[in-house]
Amino acid sequence: MSSTQKFKIYFGYGQQFLADSLLSYSTIREAKIHSKRVSLVFRLFQIGIISYIIGWSIIYEKGYQLFDQPRSTVTTKVKGLGYTFTDKGEKELRLMNQKFRFKTPFKDDFRIFDTADYIIPPVDYNSIFLMTNFVETRQTQSQCDENYKDVDCECQNDTDCSKIVLTNSWNGIPTGNCITSSTNESIKVCEIESWCPVEREIKNNEKNLIQNIENFTIFIKNDVTFERFDRKLRNILPNTTNQVISKCIYHPINDPYCPIFLVKDVLNEAEPDEQERKLMMMKGGVILVSINWKCNFDKSRLCFPTFKFSRFDLQFNKASAASGFNFRFAKYLEVNETMYRMLIKAYGLRFVIDVSGEGGKFNFVPFLINLGAGLGLLSVASIVADFVLLNFTSRKKFYRELKELNSNLDEDSLTSNIRSKSFTDLKTEN
Questions:
Q1: In sequence order, what are the residues at sequence separation of 6 or more whose Cβ sits closer than 8 angstroms to the Cβ of residue 276?
Q2: Nearest to 288 by CA among 274, 305, 307
Q3: Is 118 in contact with 349 (CB distance < 8 Å)?
């Protein structure tokens, strides 16, 4: 056979394939099958799909509602009296007549901290920083020794200091002089021009740990609006007076509508481990305050959020470095034309407030869309039933021939073929 003949044969096959695949149309041929097995599969799938449409898509997922996300603003206030002890006097605190009294022979045995001292900054966007511990260093601009524990600044003579390559970890600019360390006379370090003396932090510093933090209260007012439904809500009951708010403490069961939260309760929920809570007070930590609004405006115009408190940063026993939360700030004072500053490294609890949720109300558009999408799934029942019919029944070959007829047959052959596969031949199959 020559190559030309082979080409004609293959070309003919190609034409026939294109005609059968691209230039043909398959229509649905309906046949009533009396099979208990196939009928049971078909009905079970139909019931399952209808149950999904009604139970899950429409009722549970509220497919009949139009939804809107809340726009939110948060106002916070912290109240409480904190204190730290000094090195003098008897350090005893007594609770008398529900007020704190200090039993001490010296006036300077304690230092009081109020809201202006421990809330930094006074106003922040959707967050609060509550200082629980700090390191203070009173400084003025002069020359002093560098901190050899933080910086590689040890030297033997002035020549060593003149070769120093300055990095960001240094507290000042080297003067080129090699001097004795003020904290360890056996070590010589490079002198710097800076705010002096430099900050020297004590490991596990508890001297300035502010007491009574756990008894502080946090007031959280959350105003939200659902613009699509013209609803403005807040987490405070209508007609609630300031007198009622000042006496209540939030409890998820006993008083879920009180906007006053006890720091101790927040800590206990966010961090169950007692040792971790102590370290958070000493080294700082981050707590996530989650406010979730789930509102169904078909039931009521009123809606109240749920509150959840969780630890946001990594636990100390899991963090190898850079644990806790701290930052530095300074307070400046001029005395006799000399500028001084109080450098404060503040450790504390940062409360990050996250507002989320959604509001829903009945609307025909989402209802019809979800209903139509669900009803479209009913075709899956027919597909599964056909799959079982054509693959797992004893007469599968007969059913396949019944469903597939080729219209390319001449009219007489097609009529004869149809008659030979008459519906009267379809016997009941169990």
A1: 311, 315, 316, 317
A2: 307
A3: no
Listed in sequence order, the residues at least 6 apart from 17 whose beta carbon sits closer than 8 Å to its beta carbon are: none
- Please tell me the number of Cα atoms within 13 Å of 101 on its side-chain side: 7
Give tens-digit pLDDT for 330-339.
999 988 888 9
Which positions ≥6 away from 76 have C-beta within 8 Å?
Answer: 128, 218, 219, 220, 221, 351, 353
* Angstrom distance (rounded) from CA 177 to CA 199: 20
What are the C-alpha distances in Å from 24 to residues 20, 383, 406? Answer: 6, 22, 10
DSSP annotation of 378 reads T
Confidence of residue 426 (pLDDT cuts 50, 70, 90): very low
What's the rounded Cα separation, in Å, for the pair 79 and 135? Answer: 23
Mean pLDDT of the chain: 84
* pLDDT 10s digits, 63-111: 889 999 999 999 999 999 999 877 654 455 544 444 455 555 555 567 8
Upstream peptide bond of 121 is cis (omega within 30 degrees of 0): yes
Is the backbone of residue 157 left (phi > 0), alpha (psi -120 to 50) or beta? beta
Question: Would you say the C-alpha torsion 241, 244, 250, 252 has a positive or negative sign?
Answer: negative
Strand partners, 223: 73, 234
What values do phi and psi take at 304, rounded to 5? -130, 145
DSSP state letter for 360 = E
What does the alpha-carbon distance between residue 277 and residue 319 come to, in Å, rounded to a whole number? 15
310 and 297 in contact (C-beta within 8 Å)?
no
DSSP-derived pairing of the beta strands 338-362 and 65-68: antiparallel
Per DSSP, the residues of 227-295 read GGGTEEEESS-TT--HHHHHH---BTTTBTT--EEEHHHHHHHH---HHHHHHHHHH-EEEEEEEEEEE
**What does the pLDDT read at residue 424?**
43
Name residues whose C-beta falls within 8 Å of residue 350's C-beta, 6 or more positions apart in sequence.
Answer: 127, 128, 129, 130, 284, 285, 286, 287, 325
pLDDT tens digits, one per residue of 207-226: 889 999 999 999 999 999 99
Instruction: Give 8-21 pLDDT, tens digit per residue.
Output: 666 666 666 666 66
3-state secondary structure of 158: helix
Residue 21 neighbours by CB distance under 10 Å = 8
Is a pLDDT exceeding 50 seen at residue 428?
Answer: no
